[in-house]
Amino acid sequence: MNAGFFLQIQLSLLSSLIVSNMVQKVAVIGAGISGLTSIKSCLDEGLEPTCFESSHDIGGIWRYKETPVPGHPNIYQSVVINSSKEIMAFSDFPPPADLPNNMHHSEVMQYVRLYAEAFKLLPHIHFQTSVVSLRRTPDFTTTGQWEVETERDGGHRETRVFDAVMVCSGHYSQPHLPLSDFPGIESFEGRYFHSWHYRNAEGLQGKRVVVIGIGNSGGDLAVDISRVAEKVYLSTRTGAWVVGRVGDGGIPGDLIWSSRMARLMKMLFPWWLTRNLEKKLNMAFDHKLYGLKPKHGVFAQIPVVNDDLPARIISGRVKVKPNVKEFRGSSVIFVDGSVLEKVDVVVFATGYEYNFSYLPSDLQAKSGHRLRLYKHVFPPTLTRPTLAMVGFIHSFGAINPASEMQGRWATRVFKGLLTLPSEKYMLQEIENDTINLHQRSDAELVGARPSILWFLMTDPKLGLELLLGPCTPYQYRLTGPGRWAGARQAILTQWERVFQPFRTRVVPEPEPRPSRHWSISVIFSGAVLLCCVFYSKQHLTSFWAPLPFIKSPQ
């Protein structure tokens, strides 16, 4: 080791210390789930968060609104969360045991409020305050600071300087309505609207309805509307794999396939696992027969989570159609040449666009359809990594734990405890990043990913649950920064919280009936046992003998 090497280390440590001392005040934009976990991450790291929320309450997309508010996310009345409560849980705040496994949006809000109250997050939030613009300060290259201009209801504007910014305002507020892809829509005689406007099926009784798009919203709306409409036609360009919330044995399906063992199998034998999962899904219902089979494999795109869609199709209440070619008057012409006449309503379930008008224009650059962000969090071109986008991911599994991990990572970068690679490296990574982000990759960056082997050796009970059980967020609080003393107990009791909501009627176990006669099965089992004992006595010594480090039993 030469003196230059040690000097470089000292300068790096000094730089980290300077950044840590500089970054204290953090602006958090949005008080949805990503915003709340970001506030808590700041508090955990000793930072001073100030959250700006444009509405009057927390919850973001999960807060149902009777009347849609432009520029805000909205959900429909019947929404039930796709991920089960243990998979989407806050990593250091397990959900109450009596809450259902797949919660209605009102129950999600109940859980979110409990979280905000438990960690005293509300005093850090300025409600009815919108962020108008973000600007780098003139000395940004040395301080990394931002001018945050806000506007309160009533028009009062204010500009404050912050050391860092966490953007958590979500991406489900700007509907994507590609009308130019549908010739004749401007002269369509019926009514059309985006799924963002949908609340419930009121007013659609007895109507002929076409739903365009088969994401989770499209599937949900087709099912919901089909309960009152004359008929619903679900139009899809690509098809989709459909999975249910209910898994084997009636427990949440995502608890089964989210284990580390399942992930290991996917990594080692991707073709085998893909084939077998598709076979399993087709055993529930034949996707080709139902007109839903896509060209892509089950892991290539996020599947549609819907328990009711197959039942609505088999009952004829929903009919699957190909993509729409054009509209003529009140008729819809599909690409296969079929024509549907006298259509009353068309619902576009065609997704959302990013809308960050308050960001500097150079930070709104996209890579494909996504913002150009390293690990979906940091703009790679900033000279100081003091702005993080939290929650802007679209991946398999629950988004909430992933966005929470992003916030934990971002705050440690702000403090200088973790560093980002070079701009060149980050840009290359962004270009190569075509695979969805999972929370475990950020856990490695934070230093919070548990060593399964270490736990298997030191705490076998916990280690086996980590390996074979569901990969719940509590695992990322066992070690490293942000370690939580209650993580072990949360993991070992997670199945109790899964089973508790089902215990509304306890089915008594049948009482054993005494019998004077041995059953055939008991006699057969006894005979097999005797044979095994005899075989073992004859061959046990030869079985153990090849293992020199094990003493043969006497």
TrEMBL record:
Catalytic class of the enzyme: oxidoreductase
Membrane topology, from the record: Single-pass membrane protein
GO terms for MF: flavin adenine dinucleotide binding; hypotaurine monooxygenase activity; N,N-dimethylaniline monooxygenase activity; NADP binding; trimethylamine monooxygenase activity
Cofactor entry: FAD
Domain of life, per lineage: Eukaryota
Location(s) in or outside the cell: Endoplasmic reticulum membrane
Family as reported in the entry's similarity comment: Belongs to the FMO family.
Protein's recorded name: Flavin-containing monooxygenase
